[in-house]
Amino acid sequence: MFDDFFSRAMIAGIGLALITGPLGCFIVWRRMAYFGDTMAHSALLGVALSFLLNINLTLGVFVVAATVAVALLLLQRRNNLSTDALLGILSHSTLAIGLVMVAFMTWIRVDLMGFLFGDILAVSVWDIALIYGGGIVILGALALMWRPLLAATVSPDVAEAEGLHPEVSRVVFMLLLASVIAIAMKLVGVLLITSLLIIPAATARRLSATPEQMALIAAGLGALAVAGGLFGSLSYDTPSGPSIVVAALALFLVSILVPVKLWRKRRREA
């Protein structure tokens, strides 16, 4: 099975979807889509620094993404600018600095298209091990932090009163998100990872009645989008990463066709 590039891509993509589904739910609930986009854009700066310092690519991307997350927290406390303005500054500046650094490193051949849009068909057995090994750690940490994260999402003040430390939960969540971006960059690329985090979760929101149900449905929809996108890519000779996102979008559009009355009834029953 691992000798076939398509099978490796399918296994890796489904593993990634199982991670991004539950994490994407918190991004949707907290309205942090622009934050996820900012961290994904910062990944290119991590790529440039990894080549410059000759360190592991995944580690470099994680360190930069985590640094951007911490920088955002500090700037929010000490700056009068709104959060979306700070995110805009961090997002475009890190992306631009990464591109400029890559342009200066003329002694290294960098496949920018691969990093921007990913190449899931080139995934190796080591990549699969990294995805599933890292995924177990990430999902385990998310399960342990589920109640504090959910409480802080609903009401930070109530979570603080109950001693659940919403700020700590937020930092942990950002680090988990940085880990996913570092793992996923090679598969779907810097510009598409946010889509895989948000679209399945947004689709699951219309089809679920509880937070836990939404997380499971989001993971399943993400896996279905990966399968559909890869088979579509194989059949029509289209780019694999964008094809996966298009498949996720198609599922979202189908979910819109679910009768609103039925959806509202399920929500009331829950």
Could you characterize what this model shows?
- The chain has a domain at about 5-190: ABC transporter involved in vitamin B12 uptake, BtuC (Orthogonal Bundle), CATH 1.10.3470.10.
- The chain is built from 13 helices and no strands.
- The model has no long low-confidence stretch (mean pLDDT about 85).
- Helix content is about 80%, strand content about 0%.
- Helix 10 packs across helix 11 and helix 11 (about 210-235) crosses helix 12.
- With about 270 residues, the chain is mainly alpha-helical.
Helix content: over 70%
**Which strand-content bin applies to the residues?**
under 5%
Write down the CATH topology of the domain at 5-189: ABC transporter involved in vitamin B12 uptake, BtuC
Q: CATH first level of the domain at 5-189: which class? A: Mainly Alpha
Distance between the termini: 42 Å
> Architecture of the domain at 5-189, according to CATH?
Orthogonal Bundle
The run of helices and strands is HHHHHHHHHHHHH
Average pLDDT number: 86
Please compute the radius of gyration using only Cα atoms.
19 Å
Number of helices: 13
Count of extended strands: 0
Structural class: mainly alpha
Given as residue ranges, the uncertain stretches (5+ residues, pLDDT < 50) are: none
CATH H-level superfamily of the domain at 5-189: ABC transporter involved in vitamin B12 uptake, BtuC
Indicate the overall shape: globular
Main sheet overview:
none
